[in-house]
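Contributing new records

If you add data, match the layout below exactly. Sequence lines come first and carry their own label; structure lines follow with theirs. Keep one chain per record. Anything else will be rejected by the validation script.
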Amino acid sequence: MKLLNPQQTEKLAFAVLWLAAALAVLPILAIIAVMVYRGGSGLSGSLLFRVEAGLLPAIVGTLLLVGLTALFAAPLGIAAAIYLREYARNGPLVRLIRLAVVNLAGVPSVVYGLFGLALFVTLLHFGRSLLAGACTLSLLVLPLIISTSEEALRQVPRGLREASLALGATKWQTVRRVVLPNALPGIITGLILSISRAAGETAPILFTAAFFSLTHPFPKSVFDPILVLPYQLFVMATEVPNVPSATKWATALVLVLVVLGLNLLAIILRTRLRGLQRW
């Protein structure tokens, strides 16, 4: 049997990798194609921008919820990653914290929803509100932000830190002016993943934030419940039998487009920041 030469082996390996990538992407493209085919006819300006029986309040509520979640989770997660990577000494406690972060990332979202119901809604008396939902989703995405941010900090070359310290900079000045700017693209990547997960979650907000109403569509404060696209889609599919099928699929398509739009904005920001890297 004739063995392949290195060039043929490399081509075969690339072919297998391309095939694996195609097999991973095709189901996603198929799902989007089905949503476009079945929901395209129901997608209209009146559905998107109408307040009553439309999706505008749910779109606004989703953006508010995701924005408030990022506002709570991003500073805390990045600060925790900076401490674990730049200041904490390796030991049993730090290893235990890292293990807890990894385990928390795998906890089902419905558990976070029940925890948010017990802590924020009941114990802290936030009620079923935008604030309670954002706090719950912040806990949900916090482990992911910490893990990805710490990995981004780890990728910054040690030589940059040593050069900064050799020039007389303090530890905090080195972290703030050298490490963080170069790690920011990787941190933004973690935030993209977090935003995607937060925007598509239904179980946590089912217990803490979401409701369905046509008379009070927009929240007046952070202590009001909100309409969000995942819960709106859930209600349409399970509790409102007279909703046309095209409207349900159009709602699902809008949710995907909102998530993709948020991701696209974050990717553009990450690309610009990556161009400013010094290594």
